[in-house]
Amino acid sequence: MNKELLESQITEYPICEYAFIQVEDITFLDQVRYICETECPQYGRSWSCPPAVGSVEECRNSCHAFSGGFVFTTVAEVSDISNLEETLATRMEHEEITRSIRTLFQEQCREVKVLSTESCAICKECAYPAAPCRYPDNMFPCIESYGILVTDLAEKYGITFMNGANIVTWFTLLLYQEQRAQT
User: Fold this and answer.
1) End-to-end alpha-carbon separation of the chain, Å?
2) pTM for this one?
């Protein structure tokens, strides 16, 4: 994988901060999942959320199957960060950037897994649990749904978690398996 090429390509996008990470540095906690269970209205209602994504242990094992990771943020300014509707409206731009960055990694990597923001919003109503996901290649599970402590990952790699009043910071984690060496 040519990290220098990737870094030059991502400058075309409004990414705030980024880091190539070691998968072993990701902290998985059942307590993060507990927040999903007790506070998120999407719990048990989406293929991108628990319990559909598997147990925290299953998610950890899935992530540890990758050779490396790339975390990045975008930011958006809102008039009132406590206005959930206004805040969530800024998420779609981040997801479009995530799709573009995923494509850059797919061009160089054998496999890419994307974890991004909140619950998937592609379909008006998710098929879960009655039928399979309609768009599995476009659906990105939430980072926290995997039990990942995002604040810890940000701290380990010097990425700002809080960027100021009324600034929304969106995170994406791409996990990748590099191409096999060509002989």
Assistant:
1) 15
2) 0.91
